[in-house]
Amino acid sequence: MQLFSKNRMWRQHELRSSYDVVIVGAGVHGLAAAYYLGKKHGVRKVALLDKSYLGAGASGRNTAILRSNYRTPEGIPFYDASLKLYEGLSRELDWNLLFSQCGHLTLAHSDSSVTGLRVRAENNQLLGVNSRIIGREEIGNLVPSLNLSESTRYPILAALYHPPGGIIRHDAVVWGLARACDRMGIEIHAFTEVTSIIVENHRAVQVITNRGRVAAGAVLNATAGWATTISRMAGVPLPIVTHPLQACVTEPLKPFLDTVIVSATLHVYLSQTDKGELVIGAEIDPYQSYSMKSTLPTLEQMATYTLELFPQLHGMRILRQWAGICDMTPDFAPIIGTSQEVSNFYMDVGWGTYGFKAAPISGKCIAELIATGKPPGLIQPFSPARFETGNLVGEKAAAAVSH
Amino acid sequence: MSFLIPCPNCGNRSVYEFRFGGEVQAPPTSAAPPGDWQKHRFNRVNAAGVQAEWWFHRSGCRQWMQAVRNTVSNEVLESFLPGDKQE
């Protein structure tokens, strides 16, 4: 027993009476914020509170795809900075995150989607992101198993090829960041549910949990799925609607697919893990819900569209199917910044279906904002105030289905 | 099938026959400042629990209706055509 307890990656603590920063949500975003607060700014009297185990939410339910081939001049540098941080994160955390930059293909099945991908390729190249349009022949060389027949319902015409994109071990990111936070003295409190937040004179002064109350110098809402619920406790309204998103994993196969395949037309994206399983993701469920139950229509949809791309997989069996819940914003861009109503209530929310890939840079930027009071340029376009000024960041074309 | 919605015209039907139209919101008055309209346009209660919402029976009677649903369990408590029930 001693052997195991000695080697725990993070310790358990009693809840203290006050912290400089209380972070609600100990997923990748909360952990990254705590990590950079401790590492870059020396703020270590930090508590991470999570209502469940670490990685129980979106951090453990996503399809682990990383990429930066977005569409807008606001989104591209932001996600690219995140990808670059991920590239160095294994070394920085001294923990193998199994990041495989196997390349990322977004397929186009119609002239209009080719046009959309061309806009992205041009914007990407202008901003220094490795991304280009490739034709059917090159697609066939990269993915020989893909059905490139012209007699399918939606023949593949071209693809946006993004070589630095890939997949990472998502649980390892959670564990590596948690261990690094723990080593800096930052406290991780799992199974600690926030029930209310006390606001006095436009400041969040106390966070009340099922394990007691803590005073806070600053509070960060870093939840996904429950962003509206937590922000409402502080009296901060949000333009968010929560939808489930489902994914499934098949039995393992011999390695045959070494790129991430995305099709927005077919509403499906898939990759093969190091173990050989296919991880297949769907679009969000077409209705708002907090339910994390998976459904048969979505499984049928994922299977149907996967078979359009890879008909030879018709005999594959599904091992697991699951759902996570996603906070969708009107413009498919996140909400990062200080709330307008409560001066020390910060938000890193509205991460829709694309939060996992952005965790390191979001954490780094929000840590700088909390520590210095000034929002870094990278997150200024994502401020909560943009819905009042009308300066929305239209990222839907690159963020909706295409992970 | 994930859950059924009792359509006032067609009876219990799969949710996939419907288009989700969002939570029921009262609009600001016409005299309200533009900021209130911005909030109405974007902000949502996004309740984790029971809420009234709009649904359109796309693959059925093609009528808009309201349903009262628990967004955590997806249980639909009641449904009615607009105007059939006084709030």
Structural features:
heterodimer; A: alpha/beta; FAD/NAD(P)-binding domain; D-Amino Acid Oxidase, Chain A, domain 2; 8-stranded mixed sheet; 25% strand; B: mainly beta; Folate-binding fold; 4-stranded antiparallel sheet; 1 helix; globular
Please state the average pLDDT score of chain A: 95
Largest interface: A-B, 24 and 24 residues
Structural class of chain A: alpha/beta
Number of domains of chain B: 1
Strand content of chain B: 35-45%
Query: What is CATH's topology name of the largest domain in chain A?
Result: FAD/NAD(P)-binding domain
Helix and strand composition category of chain B: mainly beta
Amino-to-carboxy terminus distance of chain A: 42 Å
- Would you identify the CATH H-level superfamily of the largest domain in chain A? FAD/NAD(P)-binding domain
Q: Determine the fraction of residues in helical runs of chain B and give it as a percent range.
A: 10-25%
The mean pLDDT of chain B is: 93
Helix-strand pattern of chain A, N to C?
A: HEHEHEHEHEHEEHEEEEHEEEEHEEEHHH
Instruction: Identify low-pLDDT runs of chain A.
Output: none
The total of beta strands of chain A comes to: 18
Q: What features would you describe in this structure?
A:
The complex is a heterodimer of chains A (403) and B (87). The radius of gyration of chain A is 21 Å and the shape is globular. Chain A has helices at residues 2-6, 28-41, 58-61, 75-93, 111-126, 136-142, 170-183, 227-233, 296-309, 359-372, 386-389, 396-399, and strands at residues 18-24, 46-49, 65-66, 104-108, 132-134, 158-162, 166-167, 187-189, 194-200, 203-209, 212-221, 241-250, 260-263, 268-272, 278-284, 318-328, 335-338, 345-349. The longest helix of chain A is centred in the N-terminal third of the chain and has 19 residues, at 75-93. In chain A, the strands form 3 sheets. In chain A, strands 1, 2, 8, 9, 10, 11, 17 and 18 form an 8-stranded mixed β-sheet that branches. Chain A folds into 2 domains: 2-62 and 171-239 and 333-399, 3-Layer(bba) Sandwich (FAD/NAD(P)-binding domain); 101-166 and 242-328, 2-Layer Sandwich (D-Amino Acid Oxidase, Chain A, domain 2), CATH 3.30.9. The mean pLDDT of chain A is 95. Chain A is 30% helix and 25% strand. Chain A is of the alpha/beta class. Chain B has 87 residues and is mainly β. Chain B has a single domain, classed as Folate-binding superfamily (Folate-binding fold). Chain B has 1 helix and 6 strands; from the N terminus they run E-E-E-H-E-E-E. Chain B has one helix at 34-42, and strands at residues 4-7, 11-14, 19-23, 50-56, 64-70, 76-80. In chain B, the strands form 2 sheets. In chain B, strands 3-4-5-6 form a 4-stranded antiparallel β-sheet, with no helix packed on it. A two-stranded antiparallel ribbon of chain B has the order 1-2. In chain B, strand 5 (64-70) and strand 6 form a beta hairpin. Chain B is globular, with a radius of gyration of 14 Å. At the A-B interface, loops of A face strand 3 and helix 1 of B.
